[in-house]
Amino acid sequence: MPEEVKSDIAPKYGGGPQGLGDPDDLFLRKVEREILIPQKMRDKAKEEKCAEEVKRFTECCANNSILMVYKCREENTSLKSCLAKWYNDEGFKNLCKEEYLRERSEYRRTGVKNLEKRVGVSM
């Protein structure tokens, strides 16, 4: 009698060439919709859309140490305003969602995470 192999991955999320899911599946799990895509939006907004505001706020904090709470209010407000603008932009949200789906599809197709591809496996 053959033994059954149990997997931690639900059958609907398994399969595909690497056993990581169908690369062409566009369905988003709750954690992807509510956590991973918003995190991608925050990171992308900080790095690309609000880079100048982040830089000014970081410099202000470095220059004012303990007094930064009072002295960097304007920079903080500017940064929060910029981030909120992009976080509430539907076009930006869709762009991040499409980027996430492309990265996930590539991961499911190759089994190589995006970070490993960028920096190479150096360990």
UniProtKB/TrEMBL annotation:
Residues in coiled coil: none
Transmembrane feature ranges: none
Subcellular location per the Swiss-Prot or TrEMBL entry: Mitochondrion
Classification via PROSITE patterns: CHCH
Alphabetical list of Pfam families matching this protein: Cmc1 (PF08583)
Gene Ontology cellular component terms for the protein in this record: mitochondrion
Name under which the protein is recorded: COX assembly mitochondrial protein
UniProt organism field: Cryptolaemus montrouzieri
